[in-house]
Amino acid sequence: MTKFEPNNLEKTYKSFQEEVAINTISLIEDNEEKVYQYYDSRGLSNNSTNEAIIMLHGVPGKCQVFYQQIVALTSRGYRVISVEYPPFWTLFSFCQGFHEFLNLLEIEKIHLFGLGFGGYLAMKYVNSTNDKRIKSLILCNSFTSTKGFSKFNKCGGMISWAPVFWLKRKLLKTFPQKNVLLPIAEAIDFMVEIVEKLDYEELASRITMFTYEDEIKDFDFDQKKVTVINSMDSNFVPRKIREKVVDKFPDCKYAKIKYGGDFPQLSNPQEINMHLIVHLRNNGWSPDNNTLKNQIESKNNKTEQLNSSTASSSSDSSSDSEQDEIKKKNSFINQKIIFSPKEEKLNKKEIENEKEIEKEKENEKEN
Questions:
Q1: How many other C-beta atoms can be found within 10 angstroms of the C-beta atom of residue 232?
Q2: End of a domain among 259, 282, 305?
Q3: pLDDT single digits (tens) 94-142
Q4: Is 366 inside any structural domain?
Q5: For the region Disordered, what residue ranges are annotated (predicted)?
Q6: How many Å apart are CA 350 and CA 354, to the nearest integer?
């Protein structure tokens, strides 16, 4: 029987929040300011690569929801950008604004990872713009049509004037109400706090786009560069609807995870991270280990200098326990980003998972 351990999201996220700053980019769209907030792991490892994996959250979400992917993939040498998009009321305006945002980032190669509605937005963007920078897609618990979700907005135009507490309550009702596994319960608690921080415009605009009847039809993108990930126990989007993504991309890589719920990036981060790394490597992005080693050594040296200067300046006024606390804070990210020559390949568990995926593919081809 599988033993489920808590992920300690509250504790690890607090440490992450203390170490990593949120970046902002402002755009003017239709005489209105649109502010994107995002995390960019380039600041964690001095990674100046012009290739990045960009993550889009769903209806409930902020850029914080991918913090575990930022830490894990950065330790492998990847540049990760988690985006919190501003309020857009139409899919067309979202695609326009997102295109301008990517232009300002000045990244040459982009891999898009979308969770839930974020996956639909990623497909809509690729389909609408034919952006040559997009090298691959990862779609997790996503769907190819929003027609089935119009019932979520039964009141139609009511969304435009509904109070924010009503919108939050409506969204939270979609979360599982029954007993769930410990890591999933922890992820739900984390997401409830995120929803509580959303303002009216953020909620109303996302629900409006989500419930607008639309469909991904003709899709001119190399299916072999698409990976679909589905949680078998996802609650909000029915499995039949999620599996239609695989029907849309019959030549895609398809990965199933046994548990994870609606937010597997939080409840089952190890498996999600493994699939992301495999996808990126299959699509030609495997960071150079020597470069990674130099980046991490540089980062560790800077941290050691900071620790020593902090310790010497506070030796007369700080106790040993206070100095230890400072060191812990300064070394949080570096505890996650440790280079070892033995880690040139995926670890044993990741290799086993990779073999299981290949077996599933072979069985599907035989069938």
A1: 12
A2: 282
A3: 999 999 999 999 899 999 999 999 999 999 999 988 899 999 999 999 9
A4: no
A5: 300-367
A6: 6
Look-up of token digits 């050691």: 304
- pLDDT tens track for 27-75: 987 788 999 999 998 766 555 678 999 999 999 999 999 999 999 999 8
User: What type of residue sits at position 320?
Assistant: D
Amino acid identity, position 190: F
Range of the domain at 324: 290-359
Determine the average pLDDT of the residues in 176-195.
89
Q: CA distances (Å), 258 to each of 180, 233, 234, 282, in order? A: 13, 7, 10, 23
The amino acid at 124 = K
**Angle 244-246-249 (CA atoms, 0-180°, nearest 5)?**
115
- 3-state helix/strand/coil string of 306-335: HHHHHHHHCCCCCCHHHHHHHHHHHCHHHH
Crossing angle of helices 200-211 and 117-129, rounded to 10°: 70
How far are the Cα atoms of 8, 10, 56, 174, 196 from residue 178, in angstroms, in the given order? 21, 22, 27, 12, 20
Question: Which of 9-23, 143-157, 312-326 has the lowest average pLDDT?
Answer: 312-326
pTM above 0.70, yes or no: yes
Q: Which of 230, 248, 282 is the last residue of a domain?
A: 282
